[in-house]
Task: inverse folding
């Protein structure tokens, strides 16, 4: 693993405004496109970029992106653990977390900078579908990002995504053990909010989600993520609570499609794509419900390591 000095060993004058942390799990091509988009950003000089690589592509990228910190980790490391490591290595005033298949818009850093002038501890933008040719990709996008897709109103909120999000580093460090816990963003944000931190949705901070999925691939990914989420949610819970949650999980087969349909329809965008992809969407929600049920009843297992 490449070495980076702890934050308190760097003189204040050398600290960047932003540290961009990327968990690399999808191979060379999407990560290279992501880094190319970051290199073109307005204000790039004020940001350090840290890639946590479990896909074993850091060596190929070293010559292409010499200013990027590339850290190779075990393939067994989960995405929340990778993000946690990147946060611990970060030196910036703000730590921005994104994913290797996301491509930020040219004004990304400047938009974050403008939002950072407010009283917020966590700021997250909206997501745009960058893969629009196939219904399966629309269904995958709606499954994962219906709440966060553009257009999204700006304002204080309790619900932010995990891949277009900036954290005030001092707010992370103020809660001992939080970063080290390696949590999915849902639980990380809940703990920050419980500690009095303020979360903000910035409508004009945009990334393009640029990943195509095979149908079976996304079906299995929904199951793994749902099992990981449910297992993490009830870590250490008594068996009776696990049983109750597990028995309630099939209700998601109804709740998730209804919520998603309402969210997208109210936005007034991509209604045609929603209607055409809805049968595929239903199967993805069925996989999610099954994953949550298994996670509640039997724990995470190795699901977290399989999430991409």
Result:
């Amino acid at each position: 693993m490449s070495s980076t000095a702890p934050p308190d060993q760097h003189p204040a004058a050398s600290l960047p405004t932003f540290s961009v942390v990327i968990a690399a799990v999808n191979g060379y091509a999407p990560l290279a496109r992501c880094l190319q988009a970051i290199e073109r950003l307005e204000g790039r000089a004020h940001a350090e970029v840290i890639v946590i690589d479990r896909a074993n592509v850091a060596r190929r990228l070293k010559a292409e992106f010499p200013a990027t910190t590339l850290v190779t980790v075990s393939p067994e490391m989960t995405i929340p653990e990778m993000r946690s490591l990147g946060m611990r290595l970060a030196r910036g005033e703000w730590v921005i977390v994104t994913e290797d298949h996301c491509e930020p818009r040219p004004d990304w850093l400047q938009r974050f900078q403008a939002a950072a002038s407010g009283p917020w501890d966590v700021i997250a933008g909206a997501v745009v579908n960058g893969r629009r040719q196939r219904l399966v990709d629309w269904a995958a996008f709606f499954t994962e990002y219906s709440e966060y897709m553009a257009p999204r109103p700006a304002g204080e909120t309790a619900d932010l995504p995990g891949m277009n999000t900036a954290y005030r580093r001092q707010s992370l460090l103020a809660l001992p053990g939080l970063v080290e816990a390696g949590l999915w963003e849902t639980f990380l944000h809940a703990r920050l909010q419980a500690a009095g931190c303020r979360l903000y949705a910035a409508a004009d901070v945009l990334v393009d989600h640029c990943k195509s999925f095979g149908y079976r691939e996304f079906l299995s990914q929904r199951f793994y993520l749902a099992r990981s989420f449910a297992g993490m949610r009830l870590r250490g819970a008594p068996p009776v609570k696990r049983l109750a949650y597990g028995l309630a999980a099939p209700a998601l087969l109804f709740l998730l499609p209804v919520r998603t349909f309402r969210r997208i329809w109210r936005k007034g965008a991509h209604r045609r794509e929603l209607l055409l992809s809805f049968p595929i969407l239903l199967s993805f929600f069925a996989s999610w419900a099954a994953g949550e049920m298994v996670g509640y009843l039997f724990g995470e297992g190795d699901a977290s390591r399989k999430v991409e």
Observations:
- The domain at 7-209 is CATH 3.90.550.10 (Spore Coat Polysaccharide Biosynthesis Protein SpsA; Chain A).
